Recover the amino acids of this structure.
């Protein structure tokens, strides 16, 4: 028996290392080669860059003005800053810690499920999460957004909550992780607070808490937020907080902003789009659970409080974000870890206790589904869509004497408007200060470059003004004036 256990442990270690290696490859491969997204990722990247350059680590800015559009506390910006310091001012630095936190989330789930449910469940949960395409490639692991850090902290908080039945100290860890989640993605962390409250109520855990427990929990959940708020208040009073409440909470919840529309089934449609085959497996497992022959074996050792916690982890975000009028697909990223845990646990019980035909069918289905999603991930990794305007800006990175120049924009078909990914690329790769204005403003400015998009009359414009072309590609040109 000892030898069998030793061999099984060895096999588990080998298979887990293989899964984590695949996950590492999927998350980190060509991380810098993918163009920067023009919305949240670029906005976060600009704020982190400018905060680092100004040495002000509290007030986020965009184009050197206080940012009252991206109303997030600074924790995720700090992660971007550390990434810049480690990997440089580039897309890799921007995304480095998103990738690290996603990898840590997978490892955390693998470790937790191994402790609670065994090695087979751990392998299956890891496989599920490591092939969840939205978690990996949509506004999370491979981008410089706040979501990967937020999902990591959300996972820490809820796993700690599930452990508080064994030791109340885990409840304080859950509360502290909530406060850090709030400092990374603001009101989204309200899901965690509601889950904690409902869990304490539904499981009766609140009856075990004395005054000291409540005070410590309150300190863990609120003090870090109040400390940040007090420091931030010193800069612009209540202006930032007023916008946080009015726009980022109330308006985003009560109305549709920025065109982010969706019906009551929006998030179920998103889950079906990114997770459909895993849902088919989950549905099949639930059907087996409903069969009296297996139901006793499946959940014999599972405490009701644990099941309540897992269900709240999934249901609360789905309900709250469904009720909110503004619908954005990555809002439900935090529910992928618990879905993976449930699939891993149910599938492992069936693989260990089911009939031979059932085991073979389930195992074959899991392998097919994981290979299908891995194929989608590989297709994404090996086919990045280039953004030629960003590549053009990057071309000036190694040209001598141009660091810190002002950069103007000219578009032949429309008034010039800087896309956020162009702003970030200009700042990261050339330390340029993007400027609003037309060609006349460019001509009046010393140490200035002009970004010209190809179009009718572009070549004539260059020729008539005797501009010097310093870089070009199929998108356009970067020129400077003759001295």
């Amino acid at each position: 028996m000892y030898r069998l256990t030793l061999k099984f442990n060895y096999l588990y270690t080998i298979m887990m290392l293989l899964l984590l290696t695949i996950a590492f490859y999927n998350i980190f491969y060509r991380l810098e080669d993918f163009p920067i997204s023009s919305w949240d990722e670029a906005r976060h990247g600009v704020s982190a860059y400018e905060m680092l350059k100004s040495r002000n680590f509290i007030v986020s800015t965009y184009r050197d003005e206080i940012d009252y559009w991206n109303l997030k506390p600074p924790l995720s910006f700090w992660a971007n800053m550390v990434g810049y310091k480690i990997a440089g001012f580039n897309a890799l630095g921007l995304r480095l810690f998103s990738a690290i936190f996603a990898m840590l989330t997978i490892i955390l789930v693998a470790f937790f499920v191994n402790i609670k449910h065994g090695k087979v469940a751990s392998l299956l949960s890891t496989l599920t999460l490591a092939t969840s395409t939205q978690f990996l490639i949509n506004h999370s692991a491979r981008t410089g957004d706040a979501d990967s850090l937020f999902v990591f902290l959300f996972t820490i908080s809820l796993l700690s909550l599930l452990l508080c039945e064994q030791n109340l100290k885990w409840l304080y860890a859950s509360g502290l992780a909530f406060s850090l989640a709030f400092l990374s993605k603001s009101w989204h962390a309200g899901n965690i607070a509601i889950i904690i409250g409902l869990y304490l109520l539904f499981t009766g855990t609140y009856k075990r808490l004395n005054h000291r427990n409540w005070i410590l929990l309150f300190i863990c959940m609120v003090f870090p937020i109040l400390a940040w708020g007090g420091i931030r208040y010193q800069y612009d009073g209540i202006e930032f907080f007023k916008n946080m409440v009015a726009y980022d909470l109330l308006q985003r919840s009560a109305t549709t902003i920025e065109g982010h529309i969706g019906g009551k089934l929006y998030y179920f449609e998103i889950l079906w789009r990114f997770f459909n085959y895993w849902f088919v497996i989950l549905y099949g497992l639930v059907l087996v659970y409903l069969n009296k022959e297996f139901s006793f074996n499946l959940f014999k050792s599972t405490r009701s409080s644990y099941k309540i916690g897992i269900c709240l982890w999934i249901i609360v975000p789905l309900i709250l974000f469904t009720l909110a009028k503004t619908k954005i697909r990555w809002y439900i990223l935090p529910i992928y870890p618990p879905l993976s845990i449930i699939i891993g646990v149910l599938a492992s019980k069936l693989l260990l206790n089911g009939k031979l035909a059932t085991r073979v069918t389930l195992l074959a289905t899991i392998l097919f589904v994981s290979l299908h999603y891995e194929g989608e991930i590989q297709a994404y990794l090996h086919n990045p869509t280039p953004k030629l305007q960003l590549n053009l800006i990057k071309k000036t990175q190694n040209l001598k004497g141009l660091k810190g120049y002002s950069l103007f924009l000219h578009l032949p078909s429309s008034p010039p408007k800087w896309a956020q990914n162009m702003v970030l690329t200009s700042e990261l790769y050339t330390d340029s200060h993007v400027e609003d204005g037309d060609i006349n403003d460019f001509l009046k400015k010393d140490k200035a470059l002009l970004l010209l998009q190809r179009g009718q009359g572009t070549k004539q414009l260059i020729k008539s003004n005797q501009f010097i072309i310093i870089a070009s590609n199929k998108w356009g040109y970067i020129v400077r004036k003759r001295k």
User: Anything to note?
Assistant: DSSP finds 20 helices and seven strands in the chain. Strands lie at 61-62, 65-66, 406-410, 433-434, 448-453, 468-472, 476-480. The chain has two domains: 2-381, 388-480. The CA atoms of residues 40 and 145 lie 6 Å apart.
